[in-house]
Structure formats: structure tokens, C-alpha cells
Amino acid sequence: MSLKKQILSYIQLNQDAGVNLMFFDEKIEKKLKRKKEIFLQPQSESNKIEKIKPLDSLNIKETDSIINDLQNTSSKLVVNSMELYKFEGITDLILLNKHISNCQNCILGTTRTNLVFGEGNPNADIMVIGEAPGADEDEQGLPFVGRAGKLLTDILKAINLSRNEVYIANICKCRPPGNRKPLIDEIDRCEKFLHKQIEFIQPQFIIALGLTAAEALFKQSYKMGDIRGKLLEYRGIKTMITYHPAALLRNPNWKRPVWDDMKLLRNMYDEYLLDK
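Request: output the structure for the sequence above.
Response:
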């Protein structure tokens, strides 16, 4: 997908969700205000709601003008990605967290409250990976702390694991507006940080929670019924895919298959510990 289509898709997704975009470039702001094509919301009026003109009502010349301005001034909207992807001197999770703590490498950096790096045992044998933070996680800066997080804690307890024994992280470190799925570009920009986390932790097992996380890791589409309960390998690490805890809150009938998946994981982990 071209950059132009990605930007238009992103803006339209946010408009459909009722989320107003924020730009901090004065040239773009003045131009968009003058044409009244997209509502630009000042940070001090974050709760203000106004009608915005649908993108499909813009003519090609107007749209191209906006896209060109966004491309020409992108360095003012995001941190230079190449700088963030230079990991010289980054030797552990603490330094990595500090390195990316002010990341603005995609639009999510402008809408988040807190970057959610991850937490748990830095030497964990098991790593739990979700898709992205939700509202509670964004507020607290910690992964899986809302209702779904409490359920995840209970699921781990059921197989005699605590949150302190595993490491919990997400594909994307910032909350997408309205809890929508992360866009491909957002995943591409953020997953390098996850790769570095995995490199430092060196887990023996990965649990991918939900199809979004699974598809982001393996770069292909799945159906949960076809993939859950099976052992895969991600970067040489034994990996299982199961339902996201949030999905269990919506459909309690999926708790049984998750329990089966977690028992299988526990059995494999016990075998690993015996052979260790």
C-alpha cells in the first residue's frame, strides 16, 4: 500500500471512530483550518467534538496537497526512525525502555498517554505477547492491567505461574485510538522493539494472545480454530497461539479451549524444566 493510501486509510479509520487527529506542524494546521477539510483538535480541547468533512468529498488536487504537506513535514511529526533502530550500547531491557520511552515514530505516539513497554521477569522462560495496550494500560503504562489483564493473571495462576515469572509485552507499545487494531505500518515501525525484547529475554516459549498478535508475528492470516493448540516456531522459539483474554470476556465459551492450550503449555514447560 502506498504511503498516500496508508495516510488516507488511517485518517478515515479515525474519523469513523470519532477520533480527531492532532498535528503539530503550523503550516499544515493553517492550511487544513483554512480549507476546513479536516478538524484539527488542540490538545487543550481534547474532549471537544466537531463534525469533519468526509475524505471522499475532497477532490484529488486538495487531497494530494494535504498528503504532500504531510510527507514534506513528516520529520516534525515523528522521531527519526533510523535513530530509534540504532541499538548500540543498548544491552538490556532497562536501557531499551529508556531508549524508546519518548518514541514518536508513528502517529500513535501523538495520541497515547503512556508508552507500555512490558513487565515481568527479564530472564523469563515464557513470554506472553498481546497486540497493543488498551485504555487501562495506556493510563497506567503497564501491560494487561484492565479486566482482560486480571483474567490473564487468573489464567497464569491456573497453571501455577505468576505474572512475575513470565514476561508480558505487546506487538505495539502504544494504544491505538478507540482500541482499534494496529495498522500494518504501526506494527512494522514498532515490532523491531519487540524483537529486541525477545533477544534480551531469550524465552523458551511464547504465548501469542489473539489473531492480531499471531498474524503480526508470522506475517500471514489465520483462523483461530485452525491454529490454536498447535506448536509453532517463531525465531526458533516454541510458540502457541490462543484466544486473547478480552475475547473470553465477550465469549466465555472460549475459556475451555484456552484452558486446554494452557495445560499443553504447562506440560511442555514441565518437560523442559526436567531436561534443563
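The chain has two domains: 3-77, 93-275.
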